[in-house]
Write a structure and sequence with these properties.
The structure is a homotetramer. Chain A is α+β, with helices and mostly antiparallel strands. Helices cover 33% and strands 13% of the residues of chain A. In chain A, the strands form four sheets. In chain A, strands 10-9-8-11 form a four-stranded mixed sheet. A three-stranded antiparallel sheet of chain A has the order 5-6-7, with no helix packed on it. A two-stranded antiparallel sheet of chain A has the order 1-4. The two termini of chain A are 41 Å apart. Chains A, B, C, D: It holds the Pfam family FGE-sulfatase.
Chain lengths: 385, 385, 385, 385
Amino acid sequence: MKTTSIREAYNSVRKYSEHICAPLETEDYVPQPVPFVSPPKWHLAHSTWFFETFILKNLIENYQVFDPDFNYLFNSYYNNVGERTLRTDRGNVTRPTTKAVYAYRQHVDACMNDLLESELDDAALSLIELGLHHEQQHQELLVTDIKYILGHNPLFPVYKSDHNLVDGTNTETGFVKIPEGVYDIGFAGEGFCFDNELGRHKVYLHDFEISKSLVINKEYIEFMNSGGYQNFNLWLDEGWSWVNANTVQSPMYWHKINGEWHYYTLAGLQKVNPKAILSHISFFEASAFAQWKGMRLPTEAEWEIASVNLDWGARWEWTNSAYLPYPGFSKAEGAVGEYNGKFMINQMVLRGASVATSPEHSRRTYRNFFHTHERWQYTGIRLVK
Amino acid sequence: MKTTSIREAYNSVRKYSEHICAPLETEDYVPQPVPFVSPPKWHLAHSTWFFETFILKNLIENYQVFDPDFNYLFNSYYNNVGERTLRTDRGNVTRPTTKAVYAYRQHVDACMNDLLESELDDAALSLIELGLHHEQQHQELLVTDIKYILGHNPLFPVYKSDHNLVDGTNTETGFVKIPEGVYDIGFAGEGFCFDNELGRHKVYLHDFEISKSLVINKEYIEFMNSGGYQNFNLWLDEGWSWVNANTVQSPMYWHKINGEWHYYTLAGLQKVNPKAILSHISFFEASAFAQWKGMRLPTEAEWEIASVNLDWGARWEWTNSAYLPYPGFSKAEGAVGEYNGKFMINQMVLRGASVATSPEHSRRTYRNFFHTHERWQYTGIRLVK
Amino acid sequence: MKTTSIREAYNSVRKYSEHICAPLETEDYVPQPVPFVSPPKWHLAHSTWFFETFILKNLIENYQVFDPDFNYLFNSYYNNVGERTLRTDRGNVTRPTTKAVYAYRQHVDACMNDLLESELDDAALSLIELGLHHEQQHQELLVTDIKYILGHNPLFPVYKSDHNLVDGTNTETGFVKIPEGVYDIGFAGEGFCFDNELGRHKVYLHDFEISKSLVINKEYIEFMNSGGYQNFNLWLDEGWSWVNANTVQSPMYWHKINGEWHYYTLAGLQKVNPKAILSHISFFEASAFAQWKGMRLPTEAEWEIASVNLDWGARWEWTNSAYLPYPGFSKAEGAVGEYNGKFMINQMVLRGASVATSPEHSRRTYRNFFHTHERWQYTGIRLVK
Amino acid sequence: MKTTSIREAYNSVRKYSEHICAPLETEDYVPQPVPFVSPPKWHLAHSTWFFETFILKNLIENYQVFDPDFNYLFNSYYNNVGERTLRTDRGNVTRPTTKAVYAYRQHVDACMNDLLESELDDAALSLIELGLHHEQQHQELLVTDIKYILGHNPLFPVYKSDHNLVDGTNTETGFVKIPEGVYDIGFAGEGFCFDNELGRHKVYLHDFEISKSLVINKEYIEFMNSGGYQNFNLWLDEGWSWVNANTVQSPMYWHKINGEWHYYTLAGLQKVNPKAILSHISFFEASAFAQWKGMRLPTEAEWEIASVNLDWGARWEWTNSAYLPYPGFSKAEGAVGEYNGKFMINQMVLRGASVATSPEHSRRTYRNFFHTHERWQYTGIRLVK
């Protein structure tokens, strides 16, 4: 990417984060209701800290940090960058205020714009690009964390009544056939990718048929009505324990009110739309549903090869592939090397993108990953037979 | 109390709660860092809910509640009043906003002032008086919960730089001797008291000598320096477990910085003042300190009888009395009966009052109570030999 | 006590512990199903360790310990005697075998008998006497721990079919009236007592009436059938949490089989005898039952004064007194000082004795104590009005 | 397999389980020190229950079960076979006694021998064969669980002084090169395999070099001495949390005594042999060690293809492959279908076999699996570059 175009990208991405937060009240920026949900204030500050720490501090001589305490407060998981607030304590840090965090953003944005006036080398440009993709990842988390905070409030407050984050429907039906053979997967070509999409390599696929459409609420309600949550034969052993320990009876955000299923959406509490694409289910639920259908989930390689023929992007789609390094994967030197590699264990890969994914932040080779019980993301199911 | 004087009292008490919160930022109203600390916003709403639920709903015909959801959100522990937000979830409820809670207060205050124009019967006046004492109890909790929220922020923000909540020193020394005999304790006479201060009854006391002064930081530092936290012989068995499980090394809010003891106060982080009265210690620490001194803590009856000769009010003083009903104690009918009686187990009585206690909210017969490990209140030690 | 009579006492007490264990299979000696239940093997070894550590090691020159590892394995809670097996790990120590523990007992008994041939001073005799009372306390724990181990086995094995540990019925009815006044409580006179029964002191009692009989199963079933476990107004707040967290529906060891209440007894599973004295209830249940009856539990002072007129000894009777030191209580020097004093917090006093208490191990002044949720002892209810 | 040869196999396998237990004391059969370790008594009974439940009950008309309670007590994880003892409670079930469990074995063995006199169909023979392989799996667990029970006893008792389960050394050195290409993996041919080894399928492997030898203690001590357990950059994120939460400093069973590393072996406590093959490490430790060496662990496909050129069988070797179904995997109907499939999540594959694996219970296609933190099996490391 060139310096000029990256400046535009920088300002556009940075503005988009604040756009997401525009409908919030000051109080909404604060809490961390569960450890995996971060306060919106924290996302805004942390994505800024990334630019300050990895770009400004390194490239501007005698750069004055905005506030020396912020490194402690807004480092996420980079052990190489020092001590940090315990992840579980983020919701208790009422100061700096939201206002101060916006001032922090302004300060860093001004310095970044100054910097982007000058000619930067490729290494610097790469790091800035990484910072933007990093912020886009946090934009999706901002949306899903806001949904979690508001959606677990007994008042079910509306985030925005006109947004497009509610439903999504399938436009295609039927199955795509893929023949057996050796295929190449992983990122190739120009442009940005994360390190976990490399190296491009060969895989052998056996023939399979993959659905063009994602599972919709109507189908999932059939699963529920047929006793899906009560039949242990459909579940992985850890999934069955999870169902019982948490008395799971439905996807996240679903509530049965006067005998009818409702769900919380960012536009408020609504009746479940039977034609809308199913969302907010765990890997365990995806796996049990597939078992019930007599089908299975795709592997990530199958998904990637088939994706040119698929209609995707509404939900992150659980695959039956564990998140592990590709052949030839190597992590970068220094703190940035902590970005992906150290999480390559005990998580499952999700492919595609969701209605909450930021514009221009999706690729056929993109590898998202979550633990098998997590479901506060816009997750869905695609079947293979 | 008469209706006119109760109206003055009402407005003065209600205003004082808001006065306590005046220095806060909006964000400070939100979090609940640990289950026993409630969000300031919650205190403001809950004390208002008390008047709406027990007074306005009962006395005003066709009273329109401000918001029907608030009963669910701001009931504390009254099972008789229905379902309520889980105590541990109070910090995640970002809506209603702080502004809306202030509007709630205004609404209820207006209705209460209207009501107080009319002639009210004794039962109603008693309940309003209870509501005011209830709000004063929450005022002390507001102060200590704000201290907890700000004092556990790595930035140690200042609440108010000119307040008087920091230190307190003793003005008297020496011991008072009390002769053996039968004494009367418990509330008697006119005016308000809580149900747990009744009935007034006789106790037999053996002779004892009680210190006129409270333990100061200097003395406690001597205990620490002599290995007090390492010597199991000084501790109750559960206290020793508590010390080890939590690696307790000092009172709450104390930090050793460059070899010197500091503590967080509402005026910010300061060097420990050796002459100031010790604060923020658990019953376990009070008991171990007394053991180290070769003395003991007073019983609550001893304290009450001796108190006319004591200089008290700076700290809640741990006694060696368990919080149990007095002879003849009976709880009120209905929800108000849940006020005190159901907590009479596994807690210890504290007597006196503290620098955070609201004006006119202390009595020689007042029985405060906390669990043996709790120390976020302004708690201190008085010795008996 | 004289040396000759103490030798008889020694051999009789020691034999009785082994008599209790006679019906056990080797396997029954091993497990610790919950932290508060110790393996029978451990009780046999620990009570022996007490004599070896506090008597033989001190009084016999060049005494050779039976096995130097045993101090680590069989110390219970004496910090002054060094490191020990974690309390929660006692059930995993399969070696030394039961046979080896019996050999340990034989070795110590032989040495003790030799020692008891010689003239011993008063301090030594006192310690031996303490050791015997200590072993008697463990005899009651042996019985209740065996009951716990066998009673939580899905097969409900029989311990002994002809024992007398099953039921107990009241022989008297009605209430005793005690007039108001100053009374003396605590141990006085000759013979042994534990340090917690001292010093004898005055208390002021208000008049009260105390039941001559203990609550029977029939009455408790009425409480259960009337919704006692569902009505929060009857319960202390911590009791209500305990009921809900543990879904408590009946006393310990009760099982509803085909609509009829059964309980596990040491003679096996039996139908609940409605006339038998209620057993195995927590303080919380005792308190809720009393509340339901419109009465209350006695204080320990009331119990002690009234006891000359009562029929007692079948159950440990929960009092509404916290376990705290008497005026003038002081703990002994050294390790023996850890015997009682350090447990004087967050427990309630029980008075009387039970069907599992060893012969000659009860006194009107005896202060037993357990936490409010514990119910594996033979605990019961006596009411006061 | 034919009926005659299967009878021989049956008796030989069944006898071997009892041979493993021969050195135990009765007490050793009882405890379950942690949930993943089962009591030896339970293994002996459960493997017998398998034959009774799946063979005798189905094939012998009017078969009288040995004890109807045993189904509840000795079912492991087969939901289709009904309720069972909670996994965590196995150590508290002192009855049936060990003697009774041996009688149970005798009874089932007699019935099985009778049955094996008759002509059985293929389905029956297959199930019996599965039962034998199942028992062999429990034989390895018997060895490792006995090691856990004795090895966590502070006395470090000896299991057998002459056994061969201690060390193991490498006999080869250097690396094997495998060229890139399409390979077939999974079970093929005659004989027994578990369902998880099917279906045989093609994989694409990139070229790699794999070590002929396993990592030895000396190498691992170098890793430890170089600060391996302190350098977060070597660890997976969950591994680093595991190290810190459990203060892991060395492989399981290692103890530093007077500055020298010892380990518990089934022959007792010994000095660590530097040349012996490393054992008892978690996947996290294997991964960190490989990272430190600048190499990686093999995938299970790489291992299987290379294995013809490797010297294996001393340790279960952690691979970097998640335990997931092969293409075409399908689980059997009924309870036996719970054997493997439901565990295919959040575990890693181990290949090879160990010194504790029963004779004739290993195959190049065998897929063992454990969670990433588990290390009470004989686990080791083979490196790939």
